[in-house]
Amino acid sequence: MTDDVYGIEKWGKDFFQILSNGNLGLKNPLKLKSRPVDLTKIVKKLNQKLSPPYIIRVSDYLEFMIDEINEKFNKSIRMIGYKNKFKSVYPIKVNQQSQVIKNVVKFSKKFNSGLEVGSKAELLIALSQNLTKNSLIICNGTKDEEFIKLALLSNKIDIKTILVIESLKELNLIIKISNSLNLKPLLGIRIKLTNLISGKWSQSSGDRSAFGLPVDKITEALTNLKKNQLLDCLILQHSHLGSQVPDIIEIRKYTQEACRFFVEISNYGAPLKYIDLGGGLGVDYTGENKSKFHSINYSMEEYCSNIVETLKLEFDKAKIKHPTIITESGRATVATSSILVFNILDTTIFDVKSCPALHKKDHIYLSYMIQILNYISTDRIQECFNDLNYYRDELRVLFRNGQINLLEISKIEKTYLYVLNRIKKFVDQKKLNSNPVASKLNNLADIYHGNFSLFQSLPDVWAIEQLHPIAPIQKLNIKPNKNVILNDITCDSDGTISKFVLNNGVKDTLPIHEIKKNEEYYLGVFFVGAYQETLGDLHNLFGDTNISTVKLEENGKFKIIHEQIGDKISQVLSYVEYSSEEVIKTFFQKINKYYKKKLINSKEKNQLLKNFKASIDGYTYFEN
To answer: Domains plus CATH for the chain?
Structure first.
């Protein structure tokens, strides 16, 4: 077996394994002795009815992460001697898909876990779930009258729905509606902590963050609650550190500051029972275990123990009864459970197998380019690279000025690529990695065109340069012989992935295998369960992909427990205000005109209409 080029053992140690046949195996972290499931077998099974690309959700990974978060917190509570319990709350915004929410609720029921919502639509989802009586629904975000009424009334049917106060204006609205309904609310208060975190989401932390009450407004809110005899309803303090916090020290500092506010608000007379520390638990997308945007410098166990220890120390010092600990670890819960799998449709290879023959009529610079092959050596490698680019650039000027024709410039470009690849091969063979030319050569990548939309399935890769591990799901026992970048199926130059997680760090190209004629070749993009399905847009009207939820079984077997067909073209047309019926009708009228003028015959007319209707009912992606 070849080296682990893609760092699978680093970033996917609990979930993935390279099998002896070179395919990628899905390990079951809930049953460590069980044989891994071959991912290519799942794809072949799906291909019997559907077409790639697919989102493959592994229910076992979701269940494992829910267990892991709850059990690690409970273990820390026992070991440190914290005198209350932990309650996990899943933020629906991280992945709102119905099947995901149902599984989150199902797997977390034994822990009495709850849900966090930030809109009326999410509140409706939460209220419709089969939560336990001890679960919480925590309502964050901006709330209108309808939102507040629904939350208040839901408490009458034994649903613990907590309205988190985000502003003084919102508090006044809650008081007004509570009085009109003669209902006492369950209230939380969101505090803007002053600590800033590092990383991509630093703007969601600190006293300049978007949501919550700044320090100077907290006492106003407490006074208003007391005046309206609602201070006894304030049972939760909430603060949000941010998403994907890379450094454990920042988590400690943030927890410590949250405690100070909790102590002061409790001393004011509020009967706080819950301290909600929000999100922040990160995912190590690169396996580097460092305080970086795409990585974290702590383990799950360290995260839990640091929070519990800090809380205990601060509350013991203040002689405050230990509250229930709540976290909203959405990213860590769902990210690992989804994989995007797509096939490669085509390749653009910047390589020439043989050097074009030189003729007398060829330009002298072309002969100079070929002569470079005679002096490729360690001490002249920079000179070779410089000469080659100089001659090619001069010949391109001649083409632009009309002094060289199309056939001649084509031959020149082929010669350039042949010599360039000979230089690159020499640099690789001699391992001249430190030579300045090496980095320039490594960036001269081929392009593999994938059957996916970056904007629909991986929007964070495009928008904020999020890294997701990407690897072939086959041939992992064969050394890759190409360095490529990936292009998606959209008609957009931004639909490109050019940063990749590898075993030796983040690189500008992906080592990959040459694809043989008629060979099906698949890539997996991992840890895409958080935000990607929710944030996707309709660039070029590529819709949601086909989705399958699988359960890993014994002896390398699996069971498909849910399938969802991806968007049809008719569906995405409706998203942008087109009626399929109207589109078909308009097209029919157009072809009918040509038929009446006898410009097309009856057979051609029927073929056009049949193909048009079939396309409207088809998948938005490339279909075999």
So the answer is: 58-335 (3.20.20.10), 364-442 (1.20.58), 579-616 (no CATH)
